[in-house]
Amino acid sequence: MDTTEHHSTEQDLIQQRIEKLERFRGRGDEPFKYTFERTCPIAEARQRFETAEEGQDGGGETERITVALAGRMMSFRSHGKSSFADLRDQSGRMQIYFKKNDIGDEAYEALHDLDLGDFLGVHGYLFLTRTGEITVHVERYEILTKSLRPLPEKYHGLSDVETRYRRRYLDLVANPEVMELFQKRVRMVDALRRLLVADGFIEVETPMLHPIPGGATARPFVTHHNTYDRNLYLRIAPELYLKRLIVGGFERVFEINRSFRNEGVDTRHNPEFTMLELYEAYQDYWGLMDRTEHLLAGVMESVAGGLQFEYQGRSIDATLPWKRITLHGAIREFAGIDLENSRDRDDAADKARSIGIDVDPSMGYGKIVDEVMSERVRPHLVNPTFLYDYPIELSPLAKKKRDDPALTERYQAFVGGLEVCNAFSELNDPIDQRERFEQQLRQREQGDDEAQRLDEDFIMALEAGMPPTAGLGVGVDRLAMLVTNSASIREVILFPQLRGQ
Fold this sequence. Notes:
This protein has helices at 10-26, 42-54, 100-103, 105-110, 161-166, 168-174, 176-198, 239-248, 285-303, 327-335, 345-354, 365-377, 430-445, 456-464, 476-484, and strands at residues 66-79, 82-89, 92-99, 119-128, 134-145, 202-203, 209-210, 222-225, 230-234, 252-260, 272-281, 308-311, 314-317, 323-326, 385-391, 400-401, 404-415, 418-425, 469-475.
């Protein structure tokens, strides 16, 4: 094996690897195989050997375990007539041992045409080295795929953040902990699905192309359908379609969906993201709040390893029940101002400015309240906390609070300073809903391009009758940030959106 790779340019190294590829072909060995039959993944081979060893504690010789393993070669160490390498597949790593006398002169010489990053298939038997490492004694091997482009720093790690996100395939190879993080995310989504199905929810699929963007306050991506000659919008939320299903007779539905919002990018936002949305008939926001804390705590317990865990240097205790406080009460507690009593836009703006909040002239009372919450309240919400009862201006799809029509029956949950969910008692009065949409249209005319649009078909659905319903949206990416202790949403999305190179 060539040990001078790091002294050459990348293009030189690619050319050297192409020449090695041709030498394999010259020996009649195609370096891009079609298949390889493994006996098991590497982790299972390790487990089989350890189990056999434990069975021999009373003495006697361990039965020889033969294996056929495959993976990417991560290191190579030559010692004259014997050599060691590390092989890695998705399940783990295994040391492999080549002995010239066992595999033959030609096969041993061909090891010099292998490079780090190549995929190998090996046949042999397991043994324990003098240093106590489980190893495959290779009896024969074959190259499965020749790696033509050298991977980062001989696998000492890929540390440049931009390169890690842009070339996630390199990140996964160079940093095994990244593979573990995304496997954890997969287990988290599986836990969400399993817990909901156990509670009688049905998983459904709704359109990603919408004729009218709705279900959230956000700026959409627009595209064009040639056959129908009309503009369509990438889904900003599945809400209005899921509620149509409640109208149609489904009583508990959920969707784990991809949504798209044409908004800024930061540590908590990506234009393409994953949400869980669920709707439950004959339920209100109080009952759904109970379900939410049990659902999220169940996921944390099964994936984060318990209800007490660390997030970015802060200790989280998700033991039930979670703290519940009104939005205005939290603003009084953490921001030191009262925005509840007067509810006057100008008075709220003055109070917000008094604590250093920038207030744009286009911001109404609700937006000012939301900005104060985001800047002065949210960072303090470390242990799981529900904020509830939001101004009606912020919640065009939520029912009015029963004893205060200026508020809505809405809540959000915050953990570690992150907003992880949004929920409310769903507005099912079509007359009220039309008035809310019309108010949103007036806000659009005043320059708010994130305000929602009037969806006549959805109004018709409500006119057919929707039972009392509560709905919940969970930010799957943010929940993944929590359970994997990741500071940025880009760490938990395999291929986040980036600026063009």
